Each structure stands twice: as C-alpha cells, then as structure tokens.
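Dear Dr. K.,

Following up on our conversation at the group meeting, I've run the structure prediction for DUF3105 domain-containing protein from Streptomyces antimicrobicus. I'm pasting the input sequence below exactly as I used it, so you can double-check it against your construct before we proceed with anything downstream. Let me know if the numbering doesn't match what you have in your notebook.
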Amino acid sequence: MATRTPDTSRQARIAEMRRAERARERRNKIMAITATVAVVVGLVGFGTYVLLDQKQQEKDRARAAETARTTPVKDEQTWDASKLGRNHVETPVSYEMKPPVGGDHNPRWMNCNGDVYKNPVPEVNAVHSLEHGAVWVTYSDKANKADVDKLAEKVAKTPYTLMSPVKDQAGAIMLSAWGKQVTVEGAADPRVDQFFTKYVQGPQTPEPGAACTMGLAGDK
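The predicted structure tokens came back this morning:
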C-alpha cells in the first residue's frame, strides 16, 4: 500500500484550500452580479415609474388646462371685442368700465412681464398691455393684504401679467383681460387660476406675442 508523504499531504491540503477559495470567489461573484442586477432592475423599474408618473402628471395638467380654457368663468363679464377701439392716441380716454378692458389707448404699453406696481398705473397704458395678451390684476383698499401679497407672488412668476391698485373699482379684487373681467373673492378663488390659464395670451388677445417689456415702467 502506498504511503502519503508529509509533502504530498501538505500539497493536497493546499490544493483543497485553493479549490475552496476559488469556490468562494465564484459564489461572491455570483452574489455580486445578482445584487448588481437587482439594483439595476430596481433603478430601471423606479425610473420607469417616475417617468410614467411624470407623463401622467403632464397629462393631468394638460387636461386641467384644457378644462380651464373651455369652461366659462363664473360671473365673468364680456364685452364685444369688435366694439372696443384699438386706436393709438396721445389724449385722455374715457372708458365705460373700470378697470378698462379695451378701447383706444396710448402707444406705449405698461410693462407686463410679471410686473407688480405699488401705485396706480395709467389706464391708457395698461389697456395697451391687455391688447398684447396680458392679464391685469387690480385691487382696492377693501382687499385683504394677505390676498394682495399672494396674488403679487403669482403675478411676479407669470409673464404677460401686471398688478396695480385701483382705488375706486367696484370689487375688492378684479382680473381683467381684453374684453374680459371678473371679480374674485380672494387669492384662493379657483377662478384666479382659471382666468390666468384662459386669458394670459389667450384667444381674446388682439396682438398675441407682442412685447410686454421695454414699455412704460411704473413705481414698484
């Protein structure tokens, strides 16, 4: 019978240890690959979920905007646009409504790139802004300060809008566009967002895309 020498036994143990090490390395590689695949699948799944959620949110916003544009604004007043003068004049103009929603106006428009004015602005210049598709937010002394501040924030973030006080207007807070006007209860009134969505550069705009900067700048 053959007898294993000490060197043979040592080599066998070393070979066994190497086989065991290689086996551990294979297991570790498999575990690492499996974990990596799981992470990648998770990231892809999460990314797909986020993308689908974003697309759904975009669809919901588009649907809400379309609803706002097609739904009449409650208690809104409308004037026949064909009867609102559009001549440029240097003389004072007497308007039939306050604030005015159209008519002859000064050749210079009021800056309306989210401009919030602390003092009253000339009507003849603001009307020109409406002709360019702006929405004009006005308020009287009866308006709640918190509502005024909230609306000022909204206007400041919205191109083609302007805001100013009008002391002797009928409502505490009023929104005007070319040929359109509504009195709202406050900044949280849903008609505020609807009016903005519908009439900022809306279909009533006589001169869509015309400038709302480089005009007359009032006191801010």
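Two things stood out to me. Residues 17 and 194 are 76 Å apart (CA to CA). The chain is about 45% helix and 10% strand.

Best regards,
J.T.
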